[in-house]
Amino acid sequence: MASPTTAETTSAPPRQGRSAVLWLSTIAFTLMFAVWLMFGILGNPIREEFGLSEVQLSWIVAAATLNGSLWRLPAGMLADRYGGRIVMTVLLLVTAVPTYLVSQVNSYTTLLALSFLIGLAGNSFSVGIAWNSAWQPRDRQGFALGLFGAGNVGASVTKFIGPPIITGTAGATYFGIIDGGWRLVPVVYAVLLVVMAVVLWFGTPRHDLRPGTEVPLRDQLTPLKQMRVWRFSLYYVAVFGAYVALSSWLPLYYMDNFDVSLQTAALLTATYIFPASLLRPVGGALSDRYGARRAMYWTFGAMLVTSGILMMPNGFVVVQLPDGTETEHLAYHLGLVPFVLLVFVLGCAMGVGKAAVYKHIPEYFPESVGAVGGLVGMLGGLGGFALPPLFAYTKEWSGFPTSTFGVLFVLTLICSVWMHWTVVRMLNRESPHLANQLDHPTHEETPA
After folding, report:
1. Best CA proximity match to 288, nearest among 337, 359, 207
2. Domains of the chain
3. In a designed cystine with 121, which of 36, 141, 163, 274 is the match (CB 3.0 to 4.6 A)?
4. pLDDT grade, residue 315 (50/70/90)?
């Protein structure tokens, strides 16, 4: 049977196989995301075993994030050209190798290199976006891409299965070569990656849709010249890059600042990861109904409020009186419960925002979803690479752990100002006669 032509793939996608592509790609992406961010939980036992500093550990997390972002553009284009089925299957199998080798690592340098290779798993996002965009009708793309993106919940999988495996198997050895404890987690993931590759290959339609087969590479890359693409990318740094960074950073933040156990820190982090992931389909549906730009206003508003509160350091103001005595005023302390609630709201906002950003792409660039979606995902992921070291360095420089959220506040503020400035310019261009009318013109006022 001949491959589908470009005309066929850009018209209404076939119904048969659409659900299999959506659900199996979502499950595969969830697993890949869990592998990509597994160092968020493995980080603490690794730090203790290898005697690492906080900055050294942040680079292990950052290395995986870097490689999970660098190839998103070419991965999305490959999915458009050769089909998501084969590209996703290859990613699953290739990632399984370094994932297993982590269980055998004995040095920080080797661990850093393997972490970088495991980052390949993160590129599955742009593959799935391009694959599902080809298979889903346009009026359902917001919801479908949001559902696929909910695979971000994989970030919490290790948070749940990691601590029980680590504590329950510590000191054990299996088959004479596999150690228990934290080293057993990557072995479990390596097996699951191979199994998922087999299920995906045989469970999705053999004749895949490939909308980029007859589109020249130059034409696929042409939209990347538009400033709009780079603006979407910055938005994605705020809603996804920061999500990836916080997913890995929060367990350590909870343990260091609230003196909780690893398992408790993992569960508390899940209260951020779940809404930031599972609300993505809701964000897609809201974007379908009310518009992606309106959803972005809601997102950035909520992120500014929550990060603005979270960045305030605990402490008080000391006032020295004329007689030399000192008094304390304006004492401020954010306890564990309000902190968790604020981070939960922050996660809700990010979940909606991630879907809203990607709702823009098939609307503005229907023929270049792989390339545009790949670039946006790549730059968003690179934000996730840059932020953990930035969190560590700003904390080291300021002495305040809450500087983490100060970084997020500044990033969100920049995105908000740029988006609003763009909207105002667009409205002025469309209605220049109203550009300088701050109040209603007097001749249009209704007499009392």
Report:
1. 359
2. 13-431 (1.20.1250.20)
3. 36
4. low
The tens digit of pLDDT for each residue in 90-108 reads 999 999 999 999 999 989 9
45-66 residue pLDDT tens: 888 888 888 788 888 888 888 8
pLDDT band at residue 133, thresholds of 50, 70 and 90? confident
Distance CA 421, CA 181 (A): 52
Do the Cβ atoms of 305 and 290 come closer than 8 Å? no
CA distances from 253 to 79, 154, 216, 260, 405 (A): 37, 20, 47, 10, 11
Q: At what angle do helices 141-149 and 280-290 cross, to 10 degrees?
A: 160
Between CA 43 and CA 45 the distance in angstroms is 6
Provide the residue type at 371 as one letter: A
Check residue 2 and give its pLDDT: 39
How far, in Å, CA of 389 to CA of 405, rounded? 14
b/e per residue, 202-229, with b = 16+ CB within 10 A? eebeeebbbbbeebeeeebeebbeeeeb
CA 33 from centre of chain: 9
C-alpha dihedral sign at 51, 162, 278, 307: negative
Q: In this structure, what token pair is assigned to residue 178? A: 């596999």
Per residue, the 3-state secondary structure of 57-102, as one string, reads: HHHHHHHHHHHHHHCHHHHHHHHHHHCHHHHHHHHHHHHHHHHHHH
Residue 8 pLDDT level (bands cut at 50, 70, 90): very low
Residue 179: HSE in the Cβ half-sphere, 13 Å Cα cutoff: 12
- Return the SS3 of 46: helix
Tell me which H or E stretch contains 144: helix 141-149
Q: Is the pLDDT of residue 439 over 70?
A: no
pLDDT at 204 over 80: yes
For residues 421 and 426, give the distance between their C-alpha atoms in angstroms, rounded to a whole number: 9
Q: How far is CA 88 from its chain centroid?
A: 18
Q: How confident is the model at residue 160 (pLDDT cuts 50, 70, 90)?
A: confident
What angle, rounded to 10 degrees, do the helices at 242-258 and 336-364 form?
170
Please choose, from the candidates 395, 244, 271, 259, the residue with its C-alpha nearest in 3D space to the C-alpha of residue 342.
271
Number of Cβ within 10 Å of residue 259's Cβ equals 9
Strand pairing partners for 318? Answer: 328
Which of 116-130, 219-233, 361-375 is the least confident region? 361-375
Q: What is the pLDDT of residue 288?
A: 81
pLDDT given at position 24: 95
